[in-house]
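Researcher: Here's the sequence for the chain we discussed earlier.
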Amino acid sequence: VQLQASGGGLVQAGGSLRLSCAASTSDFSINVLGWYRQAPGKGRDLVATITSGGSTNYADSVKGRFTISRDNAKNALSLQMNSLKPEDTAVYYCNVRGRTYYSGIYYGPNREYWGQGTQVTVSS
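Model: Thanks. This is the structure I predict for it:
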């Protein structure tokens, strides 16, 4: 599984950005896609996740401002970020979790993969 994230950049507070992540998979069934972020000197935190069925989960700090979406056919993930704040500044990572799957059978345990990260900087 390979993940390619894009869309980061520099924006003023109150502005918007849209992050995208393209997942290249082979014989892998994705269950959950998500975005995480890591600010300087801090750990990697959940931003939002979305399941194969479309159920979403958001960190309290981004609820009402960020929207996660996915295109199952394209294995693509997006994060629309509105009303950005300086505290949203971080490196954003896309993440996928799933299992090996071929010929109608699942194999092995759940696995997760990370993209390379894209920088989001919000100036005050």
